[in-house]
Design a protein that fits this description.
By secondary structure, the chain is an all-alpha fold. Helix content is 62%, strand content 0%.
């Protein structure tokens, strides 16, 4: 199977089993998704979704967050990872949106990365999820799943991103981000992947290596 054929096979499987994937971060507008995505860095979506309802009740708009102090914000997010730096990032982000972007979340990845707490991955999540742009965010799930299946052979997220976007049609890139994340979150887990529940074992390089090891043990 060629690389192109592998990608077509994998994308067809995901499209068939999850035709309309979306982020699991709860949000109702661009401001809320930006806040939630910043909070989700090295933290689970589940934990973030537990925090954001009260946060958005306290700070319903960019303007409200921009006026907040560290002592206002920190208690609301203290249960997420790195709450000190994220508190500073959230306030700085809101103040910059107010000052430079008229309180609106920009739809350009380069502009988004100027905001405190927003790196390449976050900017790509925002532009793909909100504006359907062909920007692929690579987190630990995407990195792991892509390498395990054999879609990529990479040592870092940027290499993974470049290899994936080379073969994934532009129109599928926003969905592919979610497909790979969800597959990594619920099936191809870091520890004890659920290969028995996976419909991609026929092409998965990781599963094939695992199967060969088991076969050798049986023969010895």
């Amino acid at each position: 199977m060629t690389k192109s054929e592998l990608f077509r096979h994998v994308l067809h499987y995901f499209r068939k089993h999850n035709p309309a994937p979306k982020t699991e971060l709860t949000h109702t507008n661009p401001y809320q998704l930006l806040v939630a995505t910043i909070l989700s860095a090295q933290c689970t979506d589940k934990r973030v979704n537990m925090v954001t309802p009260a946060f958005f009740q306290r700070f319903p708009t960019v303007h409200d967050l921009a006026k907040a102090s560290f002592d206002d914000v920190f208690p609301c997010i203290k249960s997420v990872s790195y709450p000190n730096s994220k508190t500073r990032h959230l306030i700085g982000m809101a103040q910059m949106l107010e000052k430079d972007y008229h309180g609106k979340v920009p739809d350009d990845a380069s502009e988004l990365q100027k905001l405190p707490g927003v790196g390449r991955k976050t900017a790509h999540v925002i532009t793909a999820s909100l504006f359907n742009q062909p920007n692929l965010a690579v987190d630990t799930h995407v990195f792991r799943v892509a390498n395990r299946i054999g879609l990529t052979v990479s040592k870092n997220p940027l290499q993974t991103e470049k290899q994936l976007v080379r073969y994934i049609p532009k129109g599928d890139i926003p969905a592919a981000h979610h497909w790979l994340i969800l597959h990594g979150r619920y099936v191809c887990t870091a520890r004890n992947p659920k290969c028995s529940q996976c419909g991609l074992t026929d092409v998965c390089k990781y599963y094939q290596r695992l199967h060969k090891k088991k076969s050798r043990k049986v023969l010895t």
